[in-house]
Specification:
single chain, about 250 residues, alpha/beta, BirA Bifunctional Protein, domain 2, 8-stranded mixed β-sheet, 3-stranded mixed β-sheet, 9 helices, about 35% helix, about 25% strand
């Protein structure tokens, strides 16, 4: 049932498509602002997919250290910077994005508790549908992995931004993604979890091959929204795109 105003404390599925990646990132930040200010006391969950390849660097990432800028220009892949931490990722068709924004009126939990709060139910939901031995599990601080022929292979990377009274948690779910493009556009990361063992992108990443709808359904199952809404803070998203996400000064500041 679609509902514009959900009960306080409810989990809500947001059915909204603000458009390009810059607006998607701005929407995540706008929702976090609402959660922190207690304008919205609901938990908001959504999924989306970029329409073309876009490189997204973390808020503290050093651009030239993590990205082959020349290769991105040659491939016509835009580079943008997100509001959350973590390393650079490549988005595009076949890579489903998921976001959860939660309000904490008292105080946000510790980082480790947030990782568990978000990733454990998603692992369980994905494991019920992923036809791989051992299902999907957590490794590193915020990776989801499956067993592969070269060891554990990453199918999801996630990042967060924490404010005193709100948390943004978002990440990738690789499904039918062009993994070769990752090797062409992104450099080997400046830091890596121990389980990676120095492997190159092509030997480290894997696709789930479950279909975007199945993955989106798994996100719904993990967070069990009580209702859905389609309204979103359009004016604030437009401001953030104009002031930040569309500006080279923001993207290239590090």
């Amino acid at each position: 049932m679609r509902q514009r105003h959900a009960p306080t404390g409810a989990t809500v599925w947001l059915d909204a498509d603000p458009g390009p990646v810059e607006a998607q990132l701005a929407l995540d930040e706008a929702l976090l602002e609402e959660a922190h200010a207690a304008t919205s006391k609901t938990t908001v969950v959504r999924t989306w997919m970029a329409r073309e390849p876009v490189v997204v660097v973390g808020s503290s990432s050093r651009l030239e250290e993590e990205v082959d800028v020349g290769a991105c220009r040659a491939a016509g892949a835009r580079i943008v910077r997100r509001p959350s931490g973590g390393l650079t990722v490549l988005l595009g068709p076949g890579c489903l994005m998921w976001s959860v924004v939660e309000s904490f009126p008292d105080m946000a939990p510790t980082i480790e508790r947030i990782h568990a709060r978000m990733l454990d139910p998603l692992c369980a939901a994905l494991s019920r549908i992923a036809p791989v031995p051992g299902g999907v599990s957590r490794r590193g601080s915020s990776d989801l992995v499956v067993a592969g022929d070269t060891g554990l292979r990453k199918v999801s990377g996630n990042a967060l931004r924490v404010r005193p009274h709100g948390v943004l948690y978002h990440g990738t779910l690789l499904d039918e993604f062009d993994l070769g493009l990752v090797s062409r556009l992104l450099r080997h990361p400046p830091r890596e979890p121990e389980y990676r063992g120095g492997r190159q992108h092509g030997d480290f990443l894997a696709n789930l091959r479950l279909g975007a709808q199945a993955l989106s359904d798994a996100v719904r199952e993990a967070f069990a929204p009580a209702c859905s809404r389609s309204d979103w803070p359009r004016a604030r998203v437009a401001e953030l795109v104009e002031e930040r996400y569309s500006r080279h000064e923001w993207t290239e500041r590090l």
